[in-house]
Amino acid sequence: MADVQMTFGEHLDELRKVLMHIGGVFVFLFLVLFTFCKGYIIDIVFYPSDCDFITNRLFAINTNPLNLYNTKIAGQFMLHIKASAVGALVIAFPYIIGQLWGFVKPALSTNMKRRTRLIVWKIVFWFFLGVAFSYFIIAPLGINFLANYEANGSIQNIIDVSSYVSTVLGVCLAAGLVFQLPLLIRLLASIGIVSSAWLRKNRKIAIVVILVLSALITPPDIISQLLIFVPFYILYEYGISIAKNIEKQNADR
Length: 253
What we know:
Layout: H1 8-36, H2 38-46, H3 54-58, E1 68-69, H4 75-104, H5 110-115, H6 119-148, E2 159-160, H7 161-178, H8 181-190, H9 196-201, H10 203-217, H11 222-252
Parallel strand pairs: 1-2
Helix pairs in contact: 1-4, 2-4, 4-6, 4-7, 6-7, 7-11, 8-11, 10-11
């Protein structure tokens, strides 16, 4: 696709083509999900709150059915649009990464191409791992805690369906992005931008940054933010070990 000898305008034109292809695939998948898969896609979003969900049965939680209410005239229509859009984005993610990588790859050196030859598959793997972790672990545990939490016994929880959907979809997408952290650290360590010592030295700063990012990419409640922060920080520590291994390999060479 892109070529290092192209002019700036040619690069922009090539990027425009890539983005148009991505947009076309996304719109196609969205229309398919919106038109033919309404029942399935909505059921998938609601399943973590079901008593028969595997996590709820495994941990013996969420035994009371969750009652959801729609308080807006276009609420269910917007729910359908949101669920279809997120579903299309998740399904299209491998294609999106493949297209973007195809645009960037020609500009890389031979050595960098060799080091990153499996990068597309790794990005896709970690993205789906993050989405699955959030869907099967974070979402059901967070729903159970938030839906059953009582600040006062006289207050009854009447949960708006838009709040529920935003929490599930937002946390799942956030986790998919958060799980890219080890790959980012591996890339930066491979080209010498960061080191394991630097990552350890700036651990406190990283905690603050992770807290801020968790607040930005999750629904506005502290539990959802903590549910993202904990795996994010674990991945940061894992990234330190990755950087250390890369340094060891470089020293051996």
